[in-house]
Amino acid sequence: MHREKMIRLEGFGVKSYDNLWASTEASRHTTFERCLVAMDIPLVGRIISRSLRQQFHESLDDFEQAATGAYDCTQLEDIGTIINDNIHTWFSDMDNLQLWKELQKEMIFEERKEETMNVEQHVTCQH
């Protein structure tokens, strides 16, 4: 729906539209891990997504090439043959692959910031 149509809906004014729009725009910002978990590949959750992110250095393109090719994910920690097969099966489905590509066009991918402690924090924790 267009903005004008939406703000004319009962109980839905300019403020509601603006809030919805802002929320939608904010949801476009995501990370490699969150995107991969959202694809609902069987048994691919946060831990597996983290391993894949690290292996492919947050490159969705490199991951896609591996997932659509013959890359053996079992060489990664936490990934066995079932998860490897699930990844390749999911990406071999043309509907899934099309969804993957369309979402990449709409999303803004951010690098995940690794949480690190500086030396002062570490010293403080020791006392």
SSE topology sketch:
Layout lengths: L2 H5 L6 H14 L1 E2 L1 H7 L7 H10 L4 H9 L12 H12 L1 H13 L1 E2 L9 H8 L1
Parallel strand pairs: 1-2
Helix pairs in contact: 3-4
Major sheet characteristics? 2 strands, parallel
Number of strands: 2
CATH class of one domain: Mainly Alpha
Mean pLDDT: 84
Total count of helical runs of at least 4 residues? 8
CATH topology of one domain: DNA polymerase, domain 1
Low-pLDDT sequence parts: 115-127
The name of the CATH architecture of one domain is Orthogonal Bundle
What is the approximate shape?
A: elongated
Q: Rounded to an integer, what's the Rg over CA atoms?
A: 20 Å
Indicate the structural class: mainly alpha
Distance between the termini: 59 Å
SSE order? HHEHHHHHEH
Main-sheet strand order equals: 1-2
Strand content: under 5%
Q: Helical proportion?
A: 55-70%
CATH H-level homologous superfamily name of one domain: 5' to 3' exonuclease, C-terminal subdomain
Please describe the structure with a list of short key phrases separated by commas or semicolons.
mainly alpha; DNA polymerase, domain 1; two-stranded parallel sheet; 2 strands; RuvA_2-like; DisA/LigA_HHH; DNA damage; DNA repair
Can you walk through the features of this model?
Pfam families: HHH_2 (PF12826). With 127 residues, the chain is mainly alpha-helical. It has a domain at 31-109: 5' to 3' exonuclease, C-terminal subdomain (DNA polymerase, domain 1, Orthogonal Bundle), CATH 1.10.150. The protein contains eight helices and two strands. It has helices at residues 3-7, 14-27, 32-38, 46-55, 60-68, 81-92, 94-106, 119-126, and strands at 29-30, 108-109. The chain has a two-stranded parallel sheet with strand order 1-2. Helix 3 packs across helix 4. It is elongated, with a radius of gyration of 20 Å.
